[in-house]
Structures
1.
Amino acid sequence: MPEGVSVDLRVCLLSGGDSRRMGRDKALIPHSSGGVWLTAMIDQILPLGLPVQVLSRHGAHAEQLMGRTDVQVLREPPPWNGPLQALARVMPSSSAEALLLLPVDMPRLRTPVLRQLIGAWRQQPQRMAVAHDGERLQPLLAVIPGGDPYVTALAEQLAAEHWSWLDWLERVPHQPVQLPAAALLNANRPEDLAALVE
């Protein structure tokens, strides 16, 4: 992309998983700041001033957000083959667009951390900026440029029915962005909930 060309950034919150390891719908777990994880995450996203989409296959999530004009809810149709398939439903086709993607199950994530990730991406907007907690990548928290090579690599991988997010990541230009580890706590199991109150 030529220098000085602006890129339109929008946000997509992924909220369509099974929550099997948690044993209940993670998006609807009560949040310490009020509401549930889904609404609390949206409250952290809105100060960014960007268009916001929630991608979910769960009707209860759409009901939770009913009447809100600041969020667009997209119902995810089958097949449900994980987050890479979900990404294909919202991936920008143009390099003039980019997507801030985040999962609903990082309940400590706050607006300043999102701004930090976006700021790092803006330094190299042609490269995907992927959150890193100091030990490992947190690949579902990322700013993903639209267009190629991202779209082509995604389409090829899905056509081969290969659903690995990390394998796709290896095929596209990306940079790790170190962010505060505490903010990136990914809660997948009931025992992870205890860490949220420590």
2.
Amino acid sequence: MTISVLASVTNQELVSYAWIFPNVVCNGHWWYSNTPSFISKDLQARLEAVPRNKIVGYYSDMYKLEFALPKFAMFKRCLASVLSNHFVQGMGWTETRAIELGQQILRGNVQRLFY
């Protein structure tokens, strides 16, 4: 079951559920929390606590196609920043390891869950 939360304040609860229950997957961010600071904070918490195969990085509840590209570009910048600052610089990961995690949550998990 993929779950998304409406606000950043409920992200901690979602992270806990995904950590505890094997069938819960963290799924992207709603349009209403489409703010880089919220996305980066939520994303870092998810990447720290939730198994890497239980995170879907991006989805959109858009109602116009032209909304997708700017939101996806912003999410990728947030993801790159979190992976670079927290995992590569902060935790000593290699760039290759961080890129593999980014690819998994942007594409690999989506393919596994939905195709």
